[in-house]
Write a sequence for this structure.
């Protein structure tokens, strides 16, 4: 990686960290300059606008998510084992990847009523993700682990819901049983899919 | 209702409307003065601080939620019918009560990493709500509609998760099947509880 590319990654890592705690609307070039000890004019030259900073930070989140969740999932054997890998890596992402939790969940609440490029980019990413989950569930159908008439999109909806529930119970309510509850609900979903 | 009390309710209705669209952090006394055509100094005298405005708006949301969801639920016969009433009225709240959707979901994302009075008030409200759901599920156990070893708190967790999934699919993704997916997942949850 060139020095310029490495600097860009470290700036976006910091931006992602901030967005996970205060949201994408809480990002600003000035504050990021303070946190990275770079010049504000240098960051302005790079990002040009707050919206560009937000969009590139979202893009960076997708790239991190792909490394942490998507790649390992695709390495697991097709079928229920791949579904379980997806679930476990997604829990890692939600729990450990960012101090303030999943930025896609944060952005979902920030942009669901707010038209614009961030809304559109987020919707594209979230649709891709729902389709990815459904495709992985489909491998468990074709391998015979899940029943042949499983509605894979319904499965994706339920799994996505669970992850929101996990964030709520774990981060907001600080419920010590949040992880156990999420795992139990996941096993219930698998049972209903067999 | 006295004129003063009616004015207070109409200000808080407007604040709730704003919070549902831009979040509680997006509330300000100045902007509320513009929207209600009242004097900024009058509103300052009433609310004293932004935090007090946020807390009273949250309190107002709880009161609205009690009228729209909790009261009708408690009027339904104990058992699965009461669980269904809770679900249907909660869907009404999520879908129709506020232009920008459920303010508790919005606040959950805003305050999960932000200590303070709003965080604490929200956590109290959300714990009360989880206990209410578990209690209603418990009536379905004691009436023999749900199995005797049902974990009512687990049921509450799964139902809460579903509602987050509904908001995400319906509001962010604008998925025309969001309501059907949520209802199908609810029926699956009932099946697993019998």
């Amino acid at each position: 990686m060139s020095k310029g590319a490495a600097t860009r990654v470290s700036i976006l890592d910091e931006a992602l960290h901030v967005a996970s705690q205060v949201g994408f609307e809480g990002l600003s070039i000035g504050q990021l300059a303070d946190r990275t000890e770079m010049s504000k004019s240098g960051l302005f030259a790079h990002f040009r606008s707050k919206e560009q900073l937000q969009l590139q930070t979202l893009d960076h989140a997708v790239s991190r998510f792909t490394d942490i969740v998507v790649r390992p999932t695709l390495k697991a054997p097709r079928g229920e084992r791949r579904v379980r890998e997806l679930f476990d890596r997604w829990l890692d992402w939600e729990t450990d990847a960012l101090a303030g939790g999943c930025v896609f969940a944060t952005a979902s609440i920030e942009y669901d009523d707010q038209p614009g490029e961030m809304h559109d980019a987020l919707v594209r990413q979230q649709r891709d993700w729902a389709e990815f989950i459904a495709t992985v569930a489909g491998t468990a159908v074709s391998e015979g682990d899940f029943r042949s008439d499983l509605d894979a999109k319904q499965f994706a909806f339920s799994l996505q819901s669970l992850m929101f529930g996990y964030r709520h119970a774990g981060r907001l309510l600080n419920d010590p049983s949040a992880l156990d509850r999420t795992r139990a609900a996941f096993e219930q979903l698998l049972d209903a899919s067999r």
Q: What stands out?
A: The longest helix of chain A spans residues 50-75. The mean pLDDT of chain A is 94.
